[in-house]
Design goal:
The protein has 849 residues and is of the alpha/beta class. The chain is built from 28 helices and 38 strands. A hairpin with a 2-residue loop joins β34 and β35. The protein starts with 6 loop residues before the first helix and ends with a strand.
């Protein structure tokens, strides 16, 4: 069980949560008509004085008991911090913990102590004093906030044969005494006016425990395998006693949770406990049944449904036998038992949702198998038999009736329906940011997966995180220090990149309002840290990667899927060229992503007009030495940052090295810190954007350039406010906007320009068969050049006529199909004046004197 803060804080958080509905009512004792976190019905309740759990009133259809700390963020308390020990009250953390468990009257005269840092876990414990049979004092207790995997129980000294008794309680041997496993359960009975003792361990030997003074004993152990085993052992022991040692013994087991859970739900109160006592007795009788037929008879005699049931790690099926004197007969139908972990919902196609069933098969031999099953797997006895044989190496021999009951058990299990998320980042349905090991909810709270690996995103709504590995932010970093080092290493360019990155986390919200989001391009000299900056930015958004290398081994479909895997997260293309690499994933695909457009649109094989879209929900950053954007439409959509070798010096290197030494998961804390102010960004970005546009608006700047640069300047100003960055970026943003305007005003880039860009970047060995430079003229043997480039898949997206027309209209054209001596023969060549071309000579081999 989790630990909690004081009730006023819990009530405040609960009242502002989604579980407090329009019909929720609060009186002096109860809060009723809460929305059940499991079934979603407004029929749950909690207690005003101990609102630590929510209880569903739909006992037959739900009956969930939900820990409030598991569904409402920021109320789990570390008792040592909230209620620290003082000189006057050294046991204060332990007292607060016991009170949070619904214990008040039972604390009167109780011997207990608070022990700090038990077992070096960093967690304290409440420890109870116990007298051993030899008269020594031993200690038994439990940790207040046990870390995962550390266990909640702690002992000092041997508890063999020990019996805990309340030191301030006068026991009456003629009254019923509840015999429990743990002290917390015994205190729960004492709290409601019963007398109880505890044996401290389910493995206790009953013959070594002194119970002589108690004539009427109620065995009230936990309803788990160890507790049921202890119940059988103690019942057997008491049955063997004779004469004066004979005891009046009853047995009960809780249905859900333990006895302290029932105390907190009010089910230990006299009237409610009495009304449900028959259920607790039946549960104990079933736990003590020695044979499956006896188990079935108990069910039948106590008017419970017979049919499929579990016994001793296997399934049996029972029927009422009306033809004989026997009331029931039963037979085995499996060598395993089944647990339904959760239902998995796939809504990839919203018109055809698909449910799958995540099953855990526990073989009688101890082997455990888990797997996903489909509706076809459980549709009939033959399919069930094949499924268990193939996936769990287990036997199912049930026929139609038996199989139908097993399927019904699968379908009516009280387990969550879990939606599988296939994208990292912003989830359109829940509005949360979902990663493999954490989530940020719509209020900006940082949430970890539960013990099953699921994230709760709403009332009875869970998601299974995507499989893609991501970083989980670690709060050991100083965000201000990282910002300072970014500025030292890359100056203004780093802050623009960071502002664009933070804006990309809200790209879906932005596109919903203004319909576009700009690309970012980092280009320039080699070895200037572009790729390193990119990797740091990916760390900031919880990804440990550099980007997508654009080489020929990648497939266009693979790259599309890589982009589709991110939502509200930036993707990075390394050395992307729109046509030069001959890729199908070209500017025709890229450019529309500036606006709200899908990555891919396909027809669905159906008789209607349905289509299947692959959405693009992220943002794009390009990193390259030579910027590939040539047309005005391309350039206006991109914020361009040029990196120069002359900017490198010892000071900038120190900034990068300092960032490089920070672990990746600590750099990821920047994401968590920004998202703590998520509501501020989402509520105010449009206002900051409009102001930034006004500040950048100049007569010679086009509206699109003002919009793209204004959006990032606006986000930078919000970021500077949140992270307290004292650095003005206005003049730099205006400068790069003006440079972009000049670039966009130049002659439009044509197919001929791209043709020459490709040629000048080829090795000299590749071009010597179709190109030479002589006396300031670039000579091209056009057919051979086109043939080579097409063989290398460079021109796969060009039409011959478009290239021909573009070459004819190029301002540098001097000769068309002129006969010229070339490579030992006369060929028809095209000649272009180098003075009228932006054409660099890559290798002197191409020049002819």
């Amino acid at each position: 069980m989790s630990s909690y803060a004081d009730k006023d804080r819990i009530l405040s958080q609960l009242q502002s949560s989604e579980y407090w509905g329009e019909s929720t009512k609060c009186d002096k004792k109860y809060i009723t008509n809460l929305i059940c976190p499991e079934c979603g019905k407004p029929e749950a309740y909690t207690y005003v004085d101990r609102p630590h759990k929510i209880y569903c009133n739909r006992r037959n259809k739900c009956g969930a008991i939900v820990d409030v700390a598991d569904i409402v963020p920021n109320i789990t308390v570390v008792f040592e911090k909230e209620y620290p020990a003082t000189i006057e009250d050294r046991n204060r953390p332990a007292t607060a913990y016991l009170q949070s468990r619904g214990l008040n009257r039972a604390l009167k005269g109780l011997d207990y102590q608070y022990w700090p840092n038990v077992r070096n876990t960093g967690c304290g414990a409440v420890m109870f004093l116990v007298k051993s049979p030899s008269g020594k004092t031993v200690f038994n207790g439990r940790l207040l906030n046990p870390p995962d995997g550390k266990g909640k129980t702690h002992n000092r000294g041997s508890t063999s044969g020990c019996l805990w008794r309340h030191p301030d309680l006068t026991y009456d041997s003629a009254q019923k005494t509840y015999l429990t496993e743990g002290i917390m359960d015994a205190l729960s009975f004492i709290e409601v006016g019963q007398q109880a003792v505890a044996i401290l361990s389910s493995g206790q030997d009953p013959s070594k425990v002194d119970l002589q003074e108690f004539d009427k004993i109620v065995l009230a152990f936990d309803n788990d395998p160890a507790g049921r085993k202890a119940l059988r052992r103690f019942n057997k022991y008491f049955a063997q006693l004779k004469g004066d040692e004979k005891k009046e013994v009853e047995s009960i087991l809780p249905i859900n949770g333990d006895w302290n859970d029932l105390l907190q739900s009010g089910d230990l109160e006299s009237s409610r406990f009495k009304s449900r006592r028959n259920e607790y007795v039946t549960e104990a009788m079933l736990a003590c049944a020695a044979r499956p037929k006896e188990y079935a008879r108990i069910l039948y005699q106590r008017r419970y449904k017979v049919g499929l049931f579990e016994f001793n790690g296997q399934y049996y099926f029972s029927r009422h036998n009306s033809d004989t004197n026997e009331d029931v007969f039963c037979y085995r139908v499996s060598d395993f038992t089944l647990r339904i972990k959760y239902y998995q919902l796939d809504r990839t196609n919203p018109h055809e949702p698909i449910y799958r069933y995540y099953l855990e098969v526990r073989s009688k031999s101890g082997r455990i198998s888990t797997f996903i099953s489909t509706s076809q797997d459980i549709s009939n006895p033959h399919a069930l038999r094949a499924m268990f044989l193939q996936r769990a190496c287990s036997s199912w021999t049930g026929g139609k009736d038996e199989s139908n009951e097993l399927v019904e058990q699968i379908l009516r299990a009280k387990v969550p329906t879990v939606r599988q998320v296939d994208k990292t980042g912003y989830d359109l349905e829940s509005k949360g940011y979902i990663f493999k090991n954490h989530m940020v909810d719509p209020q900006g709270n940082f949430i970890r997966p539960d013990k099953n690996g699921f994230l709760r995103v709403g009332v009875n709504q869970y998601v299974r995180p995507p499989y893609h590995n991501t970083l989980c932010p670690s709060k050991n970093s100083n965000v201000s220090f990282m910002i300072d080092q970014l500025i030292q290493a890359w100056g203004d360019k780093a802050l623009v990149t960071l502002a664009w990155l933070v804006a990309s986390w809200f790209v879906n919200q932005i596109k919903d309002q203004i319909g576009f989001f700009p690309f970012l391009s980092l280009y320039g000299d080699t070895q200037t840290g572009k790729s390193n900056l990119t990797k740091i930015m990916n760390h900031f958004q919880c990804h440990d990667e550099e980007g997508i290398p654009m080489n020929k081994t990648n497939t266009a479909k693979g790259e599309m899927r890589k982009l589709a895997q991110k939502s509200g997260i930036a993707s990075v293309f390394l050395e992307w060229t729109p046509e030069g690499s001959g890729r199908h994933f070209n500017s025709d695909v890229i450019l529309p992503l500036y606006n709200i457009n899908p990555l891919q649109l396909r027809a669905v094989k159906s008789t209607d007009l349905r289509t299947d879209e692959t959405p693009f929900l992220g943002a794009l950053m390009f990193v390259q030495n030579i910027e590939p954007f040539k047309t005005k439409a391309q350039r206006e959509r991109v914020i361009s940052l040029q990196f120069k070798a002359e900017d490198l010096n010892e000071t900038t290197g120190e900034g990068f090295n300092a960032l490089d030494r920070i672990p990746a998961d600590e750099k990821a804390w920047l994401f968590a810190e920004v998202m703590q102010q998520r509501l501020f960004f989402e509520s105010n970005w449009n206002h900051y954007y409009e102001n930034a546009k006004s500040d950048l608006a100049k007569p010679d700047l086009t509206s699109r350039i003002v919009e793209t640069h204004g959006l990032i300047l606006g986000f930078y100003r919000m970021l500077a406010e949140v992270l307290r960055i004292d650095y003005d970026l206005h003049s730099y943003m205006l400068d790069i906007a003006n440079k972009k305007q000049v670039l966009c005003s130049e002659r439009q880039i044509t197919a001929a320009d791209e043709f020459f860009d490709i040629i000048q970047n080829l090795d000299s060995e590749a071009v010597r068969d179709f190109m030479e430079i002589k006396d300031g003229i670039l000579w091209i043997q056009k057919p051979d050049a086109e043939k080579y480039l097409k063989e290398q898949n460079y021109l796969s997206n060009w039409h011959n006529s478009a290239l021909m027309d573009s070459l004819k209209n190029h301002p540098g054209l001097v000769y068309t199909n002129r006969a010229k001596r070339f490579n030992g023969s006369t060929r028809k060549m095209w000649g272009f004046d180098l003075r009228k071309m932006d054409f660099g000579v890559k290798n002197e081999v191409t020049q002819v004197a």
